[in-house]
C-alpha cells in the first residue's frame, strides 16, 4: 500500500470490549466457531492515560471503528502494562485450537492493525512479536511518540509500519527511526515529525487516523475481492 501525505480524515477500554468478542462468535452444531470480525484494531495507550481516555487518538479511532459502519471490525484498546491482555483478546478472534495455528486458520482469520502511543508503542510491538511466534501476520503497526528499549525494530510478520514523533520535552526519549527485521517483508510507510504537537496531542494527528482508516478500507476491498474469487471458483 503506497501512502501519500495528502491527508484529510478523523482507545483505552477495559475488558468490557470483550463482550463484543462474544457477540461476534456464532457456534455451529459441530462446535466450530465462525468469527464475525474480519478486521481487528488493537490500540495501546500511554502509561499516563487510562484505557478509556477520550482525548487519546488511540481511543478515538477505536470508538469510530466500533460504530455501525464497521460491523466487520472489532476494536479494543489497552493499557501498556500488560500487553498480554491485548494479545489474548486478539487470539480470541481466531478459532479455538490446540497447539500452533494452522496455515488455514491464519489465512482465514481476521486482519490485524496495531496502534501504540508512548510506552504503548513498546507494548504494541511486543504483541506483534508474540504474533510472529505464532506465524500470524500484522497488516499495519503505528507508533506515536513511542517510548521503550525494544520499540525500534519491527518484526518480519508486520507488512507495514509507521512512526509519528513530536518535537517536545520528551524528544530525547522517543523513537525517531525504525528498523525492520526483514526489508523484503516489511515496508516503512511513514516517518513523520508532527510539528506543533506534544506528547499527548500527537495521537490525534489526522494523518495517523487517515492511515488507519485507509488501511481498514483497503482490507475490506481486498477481502471482498477474495470472496468474489472463491464464489466464482
Q: Give the neighbour order of strands across the main sheet.
A: 4-3-5-6-8-10
String of helices and strands: HEEEHEHHEHEEEEEH
The biggest sheet, with number of strands, parallel, antiparallel or mixed sense and barrel status, is: 6 strands, parallel
Helical stretch tally: 6
The helical percent reads 25-40%
CATH class: Alpha Beta
Q: Give the overall pLDDT as a whole number.
A: 82
Give the total of domains: 1
CATH fold call: Rossmann fold
- Specify the structural class: alpha/beta
How many individual β-strands?
10
Indicate the proportion of strand residues.
15-25%
Distance between the termini: 27 Å
Radius of gyration: 17 Å
Architecture, according to CATH? 3-Layer(aba) Sandwich
What are the segments in which pLDDT stays under 50 over at least 5 consecutive residues?
A: 1-35
| Dominant shape | globular
Q: Can you tell me the CATH superfamily?
A: Alpha/Beta hydrolase fold, catalytic domain
Amino acid at each position: 500500500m503506497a501512502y501519500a501525505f495528502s491527508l484529510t480524515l478523523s482507545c483505552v477500554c477495559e475488558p468490557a470490549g470483550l463482550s463484543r468478542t462474544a457477540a461476534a462468535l456464532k457456534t455451529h452444531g459441530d462446535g466450530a466457531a465462525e468469527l464475525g470480525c474480519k478486521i481487528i484494531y488493537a490500540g495501546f495507550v500511554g502509561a499516563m492515560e487510562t484505557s478509556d481516555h477520550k482525548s487519546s487518538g488511540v481511543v478515538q479511532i477505536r470508538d469510530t471503528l466500533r460504530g455501525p459502519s464497521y460491523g466487520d471490525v472489532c476494536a479494543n484498546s489497552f493499557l501498556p502494562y500488560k500487553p498480554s491482555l491485548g494479545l489474548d483478546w486478539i487470539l480470541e478472534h481466531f478459532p479455538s485450537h490446540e497447539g500452533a495455528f494452522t496455515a488455514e486458520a491464519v489465512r482465514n482469520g481476521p486482519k490485524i492493525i496495531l496502534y501504540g502511543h508512548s510506552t504503548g508503542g513498546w507494548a504494541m510491538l511486543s504483541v506483534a512479536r508474540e504474533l510472529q511466534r505464532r506465524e500470524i501476520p500484522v497488516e499495519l503497526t503505528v507508533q506515536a511518540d513511542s517510548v521503550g528499549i525494544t520499540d525500534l525494530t519491527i518484526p518480519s510478520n508486520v507488512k507495514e509500519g509507521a512512526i509519528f514523533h513530536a518535537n517536545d520535552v520528551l524528544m530525547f526519549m522517543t523513537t525517531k527511526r525504525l528498523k525492520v527485521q526483514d526489508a523484503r517483508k516489511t515496508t516503512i510507510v511513514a516517518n513523520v515529525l508532527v510539528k506543533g504537537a506534544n506528547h499527548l496531542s500527537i495521537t490525534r494527528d489526522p494523518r495517523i487516523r487517515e492511515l488507519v482508516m485507509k488501511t481498514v478500507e483497503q482490507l475490506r476491498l481486498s477481502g471482498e475481492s477474495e470472496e468474489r474469487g472463491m464464489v466464482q471458483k
